[in-house]
Amino acid sequence: MEFLSNLGPIFTLLGAAFAAFLPGLGSAKAVSRLGQAVNGVLSEQPDLFGRALILQALPGTQGIYGLLTFFLILTRSGIMESGFTAEISWAQGLLWVAAALPIAIVGYLSALDQAKVCETGIALVAKRNDQHARVIVLAVVVETYAIFALLASVLAIFSLG
Description:
This protein is mainly α. It has one domain: Four Helix Bundle (Hemerythrin (Met), subunit A), CATH 1.20.120. 86% of the residues lie in helices and 0% in strands. It is built from seven helices and no strands. The chain has helices at 2-5, 7-44, 49-57, 61-77, 79-82, 90-127, 132-160. Helix 2 (7-44) packs antiparallel against helix 3 (49-57), helix 4 (61-77) packs antiparallel against helix 6 (90-127) and helix 4 runs parallel beside helix 7 (132-160). The longest helix is centred in the first third of the chain and has 38 residues, at 7-44.
């Protein structure tokens, strides 16, 4: 029966883990993929390093949003302070999981989709160096949805804690 009494903290930790893991995985895959594309461009045009680096780094922000959500869940739920002795019912634990879902899912998917925009943008900048700012704007449009998801998760977290 002790396991059942720990379901609340277990679900809460699971929600926090989803919030950190999925956007972090998406960002890592995206940044890796873009690094490969940048290496190809730099073999021909090494002077584009700074511009290409900015495009490579953009999808990494979703991982940061997920980590922020992870810490918010752990602190607001009381787990950071009390650990498994925090009094969280299984139903409350499921609410923490639900609060993590917007950034977990949208963070993961938007990192991968933003990488696609940045990858084609790197190819464009390699041909037309003057298009760098436009490529960043197009990539940031995808980022907007990760920010909306972060906001949704943060609002849910603060309504629970």
